[in-house]
């Protein structure tokens, strides 16, 4: 901000400098005694608003992308953060000081790993996969068993078992 001429003097005892005045406002003190805090606070607020908007834009950008980060990529990022945090620790004292942050990262990593495993299980057990497995079993059984009645009993048993599973899943 540009300094504006001011006729008032600094309120600090023994100071004869002019009080700070700018486009942001006027202070009862000169710049040496903290009068310029008005401009500093204005710059801080502007910077905070800038970062708030910048991060909001980046978050919207990331969430609107068709190929947003996968859990595996997020896990990779957290593992790199963990490695960097550990590399910054030069001795046992620094490691102790960072223990809270390190354990928090470890918990986040564990949570993402658990999510990945549960998603992998859900993906692996799809309806199409189950039907494909049943088809393979049916082919193997029909190739090796010639008794039609036995094959019908096995087919009925498998069908009833699947119906029970579907009922329990719903």
Short description:
With 170 residues, the chain is mainly α. The chain is 69% helix and 2% strand.
Itemize the secondary structure elements and their pairings.
Elements: E1 21-22, E2 25-26, H1 37-64, H2 71-88, H3 92-97, H4 99-124, H5 127-144, H6 148-169
Antiparallel strand pairs: 1-2
Helix pairs in contact: 2-4
Keywords:
2 strands, 170 residues, mainly alpha, two-stranded antiparallel ribbon, single chain
Account of the protein in words:
This protein has 170 residues and is mainly alpha-helical. Helices cover 69% and strands 2% of the residues. It contains six helices and two strands; from the N terminus they run ββαααααα. A two-stranded antiparallel sheet has the order 1-2. β1 (21-22) and β2 form a beta hairpin. α2 runs antiparallel to α4. It is elongated. The mean pLDDT is 79.
């Amino acid at each position: 901000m540009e300094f504006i001429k001011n006729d008032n003097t600094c309120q600090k005892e023994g100071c004869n400098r002019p009080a700070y005045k700018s486009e942001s406002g006027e202070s009862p003190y000169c710049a040496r005694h903290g009068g310029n805090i008005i401009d500093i606070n204005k710059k801080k607020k502007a910077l905070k608003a800038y970062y708030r908007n910048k991060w909001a834009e980046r978050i919207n950008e990331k969430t609107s992308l068709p190929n947003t980060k996968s859990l595996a990529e997020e896990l990779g990022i957290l593992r790199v953060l963990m490695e960097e945090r550990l590399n910054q620790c030069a001795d046992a004292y620094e490691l102790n000081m960072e223990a809270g942050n390190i354990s928090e990262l470890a918990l986040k990593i564990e949570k993402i790993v658990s999510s990945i495993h549960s998603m992998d299980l859900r993906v692996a057990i799809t309806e199409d996969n189950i039907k494909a497995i049943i088809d393979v079993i049916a082919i193997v059984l029909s190739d090796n068993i010639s008794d039609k009645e036995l094959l019908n009993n096995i087919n009925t048993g498998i069908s009833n078992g699947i119906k029970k599973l579907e009922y329990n899943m719903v």
